[in-house]
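Is beta-D-fructofuranose placement plausible here? Inputs below.
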Amino acid sequence: GQTTPDYRPQYHFTPPKNWINDPNGLVYHEGEYHLFYQHNPFDNKWGHMSWGHAVSKDLLRWEHLPLAIPEFTHADGNTKTAIFSGSAVIDKGNKNGLCPPGTKDCMVAVYTGNVSKDDKQTNQYQNLAYSADRGRTFTQYDKNPIIDIGSKEFRDPNVFWYAPQQKWVMATVKAKEHRAAFYASKDLKKWEFLSHFGPTGDTSKVWECPALMQVPVQGESGQSRWVLFISAGHPQPDYVGMQYFVGNFDGTTFTLDPAHPKPISGNSYAGAVVDWGKDYYAAIQYNDLPGSQPGPVMVGWLNNWAYANDLPTMPFKGAMSLPRQISLKRTASGLQLVQQPITSVRTLRGPASNVATMRLNNESRVWQKNTDNTYELELTLRPGTAKTAGIRLAKGSNEETLVQYVDGKLQVDRRRSGNVAFNKRFASVDEAPVALQNGAVKLRIFVDKSIVEVFINDGERVLTDQIFPTETAGGIELFAEGGTAEFSGLTLWPIKPVVR
Ligand code: FRU
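Reply from A.M.:
I modeled the complex. Tokens:
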């Protein structure tokens, strides 16, 4: 008989139980990376939004901590503030005096208060909560809200220190106007409006979770651009996804750079696509990364609002992406976003299995009959004369997930990946345009039970998708159809489960 499917990822973050969505308050402080997240403490579906909390010393192994910021009820007894998405910063030396006197460093969470009275939403504004004990407990600021424009669609404050002008900058969105709104403050309490950006790019969905950061240009020492990430629509209508804008920020205004990537045909965005899969959303950057980093690190929610509430997972719902190192690369079509898993992900690798170059002519070859669907895979694929060539993952007798090259595109086809019936929008073929380099495409694929994260050509394109295999075989098979394809540098590393 069939055993109960084991969908829980082994090296991607998931909560012990119940629902999660966006990562919140990503900040490094005193040896700890904090991961706060949108969380329903009571149920395995969206609701009662609060900030859950975990910490890590390496961004890979997480320790779960008690709920950090719970939804709260006002004095009238029927008004409630839900703790929507936001960010966290460290006020070193407690200079602004939010925390009690004598506090060394004050952690300040800047979040959206989603206010409702008798279960009817009345307002959405920006609030502060502060912690004098490294994010373990928070106190609500008694002069909240800090920014209230009388809107019900004004959210997701992304705050960072803007060193050139010694001030805090906040990016927010006016969700239905498809505009980012920027504010500045010297003390985190009083905020002044700076400017708007948008509407532009994708306006098919509300704008959410802005993230503004300075990103280095690969191979051009000292060169960087400001990149604005917006969670909005997806190249395929009916889904949400992320777009990015390459530009400049002068402390007041964000403007598009002439080298912002040109739209790709078939994709009408002015905004460029961050992840071509269905399951990467609401990503934000870490504040205060230690040491000299090659660039920002971002984490995203590995899910899609199109079906998120229906996922067939118990007793939890939702996962986070691997932390991604962000850079820009100059290409013929402009400055392109490059995303790579942080380098230390390699430390999770078990002993490698290799295969010398394999040529397939209109045939399939089983590489692994059985894996536990917890591994990293690398290969270089030369499609050659094949019409379609690639790899079948999580393969059982009746199920498979295809990662394949066809006609200038790298596809993840999860239509037969297992349980696809839980929501009619789940089964899908996702694709990213890919230019072959010397006739080849390089793939680095992370499989983690119900997650497939595909990094193409050193992170120039990424496809992230969930799958829910019901068979346990976890096979891997290579194939070429309609001609000859070559696979080289095939390497598989089992990944050691990260202890929780
Ligand atoms: C994005 C989002 C945010 C909001 C939060 C609520 O996924 O809709 O805009 O703050 O989730 O949970």
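Short version: The first strand starts at residue 18 and ends at 29.
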